[in-house]
């Protein structure tokens, strides 16, 4: 089994839900002391929608994931481990809340 260095949760949103997503991410960052990335108002990397990344370690996984599941209020959240294998992390190891979106994983090479 690969070593998990941490996790990334990507909160997806659009123009109508940007403030909801920003508030959600800011709350998670403050409540669980996790790193919040920029609020991207365009698709970035493999992500098909606007998104904001939350980065956290294994010790916070259960609390962050449960809180997101209970408080995402309809937003899609894509979470993956960071094992160093970007393709597997974004496909085989993916965890989705609220529906799956097709990622642009062509940028990841094995």
Q: What key phrases describe this protein's structure?
A:
single chain; about 110 residues; alpha+beta; Alpha-Beta Plaits; five-stranded antiparallel sheet; 5 strands
If you had to describe this structure to a student in words, what would you say it looks like?
The chain has 110 residues and is of the alpha+beta class. The protein has a domain at 11-73: Alpha-Beta Plaits. 28% of the residues lie in helices and 25% in strands. The protein is built from three helices and five strands; from the N terminus they run βαββαβαβ. A five-stranded antiparallel sheet has the order 2-3-1-4-5, with helices on one face. The longest helix has 15 residues, at 18-32. 23% of the residues are buried. The mean pLDDT is 95.
List strands and helices in order, with pairings.
Layout: E1 7-13, H1 18-32, E2 35-40, E3 50-56, H2 61-71, E4 77-81, H3 86-90, E5 95-97
Antiparallel strand pairs: 1-3, 1-4, 2-3, 4-5
Return the CATH topology of the domain at 11-73. Answer: Alpha-Beta Plaits
What share of the residues does DSSP label as strand, in percent? Answer: 25-35%
CATH homolog superfamily of the domain at 11-73:
DOPA-like domains
> Given the helix and strand composition, which structural class is it?
alpha+beta
Query: How many beta-strand segments?
Result: 5
Q: Strand order of the main beta sheet, please?
A: 2-3-1-4-5
- The 3D shape can be described as globular
Helix count?
3
Fraction of helical residues: 25-40%
CATH class placement of the domain at 11-73: Alpha Beta
Biggest sheet character: 5 strands, antiparallel
Termini Cα gap? 17 Å
> Which CATH architecture of the domain at 11-73 is right?
2-Layer Sandwich
- Secondary-structure element series: EHEEHEHE
Q: How is the quaternary structure best described?
A: single chain
